[in-house]
Specification:
By secondary structure, this protein is of the alpha+beta class. It has one domain: Cytochrome P450 (Cytochrome p450, Orthogonal Bundle), CATH 1.10.630. Helix content is 52%, strand content 10%. It has 20 helices and 14 strands. A 5-stranded mixed sheet has the order 1-2-10-7-3. Strands 4-14-11 form a 3-stranded antiparallel sheet. A hairpin with a 3-residue loop joins strand 12 and strand 13. Bound molecules: protoporphyrin IX containing FE. Protoporphyrin IX containing FE (HEM) binds next to helix 14, helix 15 and helix 20. The site of protoporphyrin IX containing FE has 23 residues, from helix 14, helix 15 and helix 20.
């Protein structure tokens, strides 16, 4: 009997303690609307019972019900959701929101603290040093890689003329092929030969996305008992071993060439440290020649950045290219206009090389890409943490509050983009008043100091690829009314792949 009384008293005390703790947690957000939550469990059931796709649609519904600022109660923390341009401007430009949200923790073992996942001084010094790696003159060297690799993609798309082709996996292998060669400088055959490395990158990205949206397996403790843990560890080993071996080899090669240059001054060795040299430089070479705080980066630091480029630079561009091809298939009149512009500026020769300057001439294609990135933003949400107490839209956020920015929501808000569900490339024309668009309502690459460092790289890769595919093929929908259902993990994707038909021009 006494034991029962003690147990009841303990349960009551525990309940009271949790209630007090939750009330304190709740206090700053009382004025913020949000879906009804259970007394002690908050919205946890609603969160954990949904797949990533259902969560994505739920978040869109919540905005319709509660407006551009709302909260979700995840028992031990509140997530504040913002989809108003004026708030997003503040988040993207103020130092107190410069820190990434907790969602990225599931990437830490894979990417370490590379640019995407680092914060504070490490992020600042690395970002400053790595900006030169994306200089135009470096990107110019990559255009021939985009061109060569997209010829392989075109061959694959035209393998069975007129049949539907599920394009998303093909485009993903293409973007992986590109990023392996441009980031690591190592020859890649990702589109034609399966490799342990490319399979591991694909698998680990899928596991990370799954964990990000499944709050049970998000916990490292729980995850180690899941059946995904063993494949995850295997992928980690494969990726890290591969990246480190490429780095080690490349460091040796650079060392040998600089020793040869100093031993034999009679031999002219091109100084490829200078930006603008015509020698082929991979992003890795620049990392190996970078000094931060007066010392070169260690192999581990270089590995973190290379793995980050592999992650941030392949699924994103694959999503963009896939949805642009879909948009062109759905709007044959826009596709024909794009084709005419390509023929006018590059000609009909399917093998004619392109460069940055000829890609810059494709102004209409630019508008189409911008509009498709609006309608289908490859990164639909991003998350940040307030590093200290901050006032955002009248809500005083305590330090460490997690904030989600609804990029997809803003891009589909009629207040910012009239007729948001229509594909209207001309809305980005300056003559049509594109400058009136709120810059913080259109942020496919984010904005401010933590914007996408690979933005220009991605834009040229996308432009080069689309111009090649449309120069060589006419793209059609599988049937006239086809609309792909969407799935949003960290990246926006077609839920059941993207079946399209390709015909040679
Ligand atoms: C269409 C393609 C792409 C899109 C839509 C995109 C979008 C974004 C967005 C929205 C962010 C901000 C993420 C956040 O704040 O959490 C970001 C960051 C980043 N992106 Fe991209 N990205 C693309 C391609 C690339 C490519 C090709 C690379 C590298 C080659 C790259 C490298 C990075 C890196 C390193 C960061 C972190 C920057 C920092 O925090 O300083 N991205 N990207």
């Amino acid at each position: 009997m006494l034991a029962l009384i003690l147990l009841a008293a303990f349960a009551l005390a525990l309940w009271f303690w949790v209630w007090r703790w939750r009330s304190r947690l709740h206090a700053p957000f009382l004025s913020v609307p949000g879906p009804p939550a259970l007394p002690l469990l908050g919205n946890t059931f609603q969160i954990v019972s949904k797949s990533s796709t259902e969560l994505f649609h739920w978040m869109l519904e919540l905005e319709k019900s509660y407006g551009k600022v709302y909260k979700v109660d995840g028992i031990y923390e509140y997530v504040l959701f913002y989809a108003a341009a004026e708030h997003v401007e503040k988040i993207m430009t103020c130092a107190e929101f410069n820190c990434k949200g907790d969602d990225y923790n599931v990437l830490l073992e894979w990417l370490g603290t590379g640019l995407l996942t680092s914060n504070g001084n490490k992020w600042f010094t690395h970002r400053k040093a790595l900006t030169s790696a994306f200089h135009f003159k470096i990107l110019d060297n990559f255009v021939p890689v985009f061109d060569r690799k997209s010829s392989i993609l075109v061959k694959k798309l035209l393998e069975n003329v007129g049949d539907t082709v599920e394009i998303f996996p093909l485009v993903k292998l293409y973007t992986l092929d590109v990023i392996i060669e441009t980031a690591m400088g190592t020859a890649s055959e990702a589109q034609t030969k399966q490799s342990k490395y490319t399979l591991a990158v694909e698998e680990i990205a899928a596991i990370a996305f799954f964990r990000m949206f499944n709050r049970i397996f998000y916990s490292d403790f729980v995850f180690q008992f899941s059946k995904l843990y063993e494949p995850y560890k295997r992928c980690l080993r494969t990726i890290h071993d591969f990246t480190l071996s490429v780095i080690e080899k490349r460091r040796q090669t650079l060392l040998l060439s600089s020793t040869a240059a100093s031993d034999r001054p009679d031999i002219q060795v091109q100084d490829d440290r200078e930006l603008g040299s015509r020698t082929k430089k991979a992003l890795l070479d620049i990392l190996l020649q970078t000094n931060i705080d007066g010392r070169p980066l260690t192999n581990e630091e270089v590995r973190e950045e290379v793995d980050t480029f592999m992650f941030a630079g392949h699924d994103t561009t694959a999503s963009a290219i896939t949805f642009i091809l879909y948009a062109l298939a759905k709007h044959p009149e826009i596709q024909e206009k794009v084709y005419e512009e390509i023929v006018f500026n590059i000609g009909t020769d399917k093998d004619a090389p392109v460069n940055i300057s000829s890609l810059n001439d494709l102004k209409y294609l630019d508008l189409v890409i911008k509009e498709s990135l609006r309608k289908y933003p490859p990164v639909p949400f991003i998350s940040r943490t307030a590093i200290k107490e901050a006032n955002l839209g009248g809500v005083i956020l305590p330090a460490n509050t997690n904030i989600t920015i609804g990029i997809y929501n803003m891009h589909h808000n009629a207040e910012y983009f009239p007729d948001p569900e229509q594909l209207i490339p001309e809305r980005f024309e300056t003559e049509r008043g594109a400058e009136k668009l709120n810059p913080y309502a259109y942020v496919p690459f984010s904005a401010g100091s933590r914007n996408c460092i690979g933005q220009k790289f991605a834009q040229y890769e996308i432009k080069s690829t689309i111009s090649k595919v449309i120069r060589c093929c006419r793209v059609q929908l599988p049937f006239a009314s086809y609309e792909p259902p969407l799935k949003a993990e960290m990246i926006l994707k077609p839920m059941d792949d993207m079946p399209l038909r390709f015909y040679p021009r």
